[in-house]
Amino acid sequence: MIYFIFNGILLKNALKRRKTVKSELELNIRKGYSKDLKCFKSLKTFVANTFEELCFQDKLIFDHSERIKDINSLLDKIDKKNNNGLKINDFQQALENIKDIVAARLIVLEPQRILTIHNIIINIERFAIQQIKILVPSDMSGSSLIKDILESKNKLSVDIQIRENETGYFGVHYIIEPRPIDPFYVNCEVPLHTVFELQLRTLMMHTWSEIQHRAIYKNTDNEKENLGGLFEVLAHQINGVDKMLSKLAYENNSFLPTMDFNIQVSNDYTLLLDEIKIHIRNFEENNLHMKYRYKLIKEEFLEKHKQIITEFLSSETPDTLTANLFVEIAELLLKSGRYKESVVIYKKCLEYSDLKHWVLLRICEALIQIEETKKAIFYYNKIKNYLLKNLDFEARIAVLSGAAVIAWKLDDNNQALIFSTESISNIKELPIKQQITNLSNYLYFVIETIEENYFEDKSKEKACSLFDAESENVEYLQKLEKEHSKIFSPDRFDTLAWYFFKRFEICDEGSCEKNTFLILASEYMEKCYVCHQEKNPNGSPRELWSNHKYRIYLAQKDCDK
Known about the structure:
The chain is of the alpha/beta class. It folds into 3 domains: 2-250, Beta Polymerase, domain 2; 254-270 and 293-354, no CATH class; 271-292 and 355-560, Serine Threonine Protein Phosphatase 5, Tetratricopeptide repeat (Alpha Horseshoe), CATH 1.25.40. The chain has 24 helices and 6 strands. The chain has a 6-stranded mixed beta sheet with strand order 1-2-6-5-3-4. Helix 6 links the parallel strand 3 and strand 4 (160-165). Helix 13 (323-335) packs antiparallel against helix 14, helix 14 (339-349) runs antiparallel to helix 15 (356-369) and helix 23 (512-535) runs antiparallel to helix 24.
């Protein structure tokens, strides 16, 4: 009886609808929608949590919202697609052709922030970007903002499409596949729906879009024609106002932490140095699990204070008092990817800084990044000569570890092993906690070096030999973990997990060691998360750990197949 009543209600509703969706198709869609509703809700929560975290960290975002398309709106959309020649015959075909069943919006205050947020979105580890469309008025398609957004396609495996329109609307729309890298979602019984749409636009354009959608999108052709011209005029006016707001915002404001420098470089160096250190500490403490923010914050800092940077680049060699200030500025430039400028300032500090060995290492690193190998070798030789001097114990460890990494990068493998062996030998004389920190940091740098330089097919043999060269050091870190696990931090477990995962990746298929490496990677990654929960139960895991955990999880799934 209940079945007949239920079907009767569905048929009655279908007859009432102005559209032409057949009752059989509607029943199939409703059943599928009801069955997958939990997956839609799970994805909506996943997206909301991600953007809530982003809004908390980034004051550039005004608001965010998420929604699930209700069943009647979905049926309307299916009807329109069928009437336009696309035949959707069941719920599965609806899922394949309609990507906005779950959708989200990010609202910013003015257009320039769209570029900043776009760069953040494409770097979020939880998102796999499938499609990007820039919806733009035809008279705006050649603007510098659009060109800047298009430049980001070099980092992506998808093209960025430009869709010009006459309505005046401007926004960036994404189709995104979620990556459930967080432990809760990886282990969740309710899987995430496979895709969602994200719309990024300004607050004023959002207001226009909401009213325009209600007034035109769902109305008849006559109503659309009557109102279309008015909304087009309004959209162009709104774009003009947005540009003015953007100009005012960047003339009178900054979105950095409060750091108003009214200091001339020639005056109080000590105060300026303190401000820079506070700035670095602030963004590193506040963005531990959002690694993709570091570079953006540093770039904005450098842009805001470009006059100071210019003075440093053109100034004479500093005296002893100001050398450390020059080093701090060079460090900001290096970490922001401005390698040539960093080298210019680092060189000025060589004769005066009490960290000459560290400055030499940094110059080498920057020169290698810009592929000036001959110059890098010149400074590398200076490092080797510097090691012949009487350095204090801890400084010598730092120089040896850094020199070993530089040597790997310059393919001086025999010398790298000599540096590495002496460094580890010295590290073992330190107190246990310092041993763990120094050895773990060194190994992570080595892993990054191998990954950057030797992970192509032609270099796999070399990568394996380099990993083998560090195997004793890894075994010693494992021994420390077994004996002193309580003083291990999550980062130290992550280092071990990533070392074994990289060994798994580089192993030949069918190798007896391959599965062992993956098991070890998984075990240490689990320890990383357990340790984090014990030491910081209310904090979010670092984005880096989440990414590593997800990569290991995917590898395990592939092996299980």
